[in-house]
Amino acid sequence: MGSRVSEALVVCYHSVSDDWDHALAxxxxxxxxxxxxxxxxxxxxxxxxxxLDGGRRSLHVTFDDAFKAVLQAIPVLERLGLHAxxxxxxxxxxxxxxxxxxxxxxxAVSHREHLVTMDWxxxxxxxxxxxxxxxxxxxxxxxxxxSDTELERELVNSRTRIEEELGRPCRLLAYPYGEHDTRVHAxxxxxxxxxxxxxxxxxxxxxxxxxxxxxxYRRDSLVRATMKTSFLKPGASAFLARTRFRPxx
Length: 249
Prior knowledge:
Strand content: 5-15%
Order of helices and strands: EEEHEEHEHHEHEHEEHH
Radius of gyration: 17 Å
Largest sheet: 6 strands, parallel
CATH architecture: Alpha-Beta Barrel
Low-confidence stretches: 232-238, 241-245
Mean pLDDT: 92
């Protein structure tokens, strides 16, 4: 990781599924159309190690929660030559447990199979195919609500567990719910991460522990996704900020 201002476009997805009609799950068709459009617009795929030094037309793909359904999107990424990071909740990875956080309680009852996450063997396979595996903490809490001790435990334990299981450094963190503040940034730095990502609110390209991402959801048409990923969008930004979906994860 470098130290310059990052101008890379980092997009954030959660699940990719044609069967789960939920905001967090983009369809496979939309997923491929959105990313193909970015490449046609001249964005250059970069690996995770180049995100901080990435220029204005650099592109990196991320997935929060490590839902098992994301595995069906991997061939699309490989076919398009895109680099991606999957952020895993380590307490779920032993058995690939569902992400049954309170915000998804209804889905945990009615669509539990769609909340299933990747287990260590699947994460290990992705790492072997060149994808980065980052931390989404140990248990997916609201980090700003934790004590200093709890916060350190979530960040350190998840990083070390990933490193032990995969046999490679865990350099990146994605904050659950996109929530963070200066105290959380400092904890991420002390915990050994090279960089950490939020979503849009409260992020800044000059702070490696508050890097922005553009989050994309099922309702984002190609036109809307293009607006959200444009660097020249003063009017679009104001509109989309008023209508932005608040993710559960």
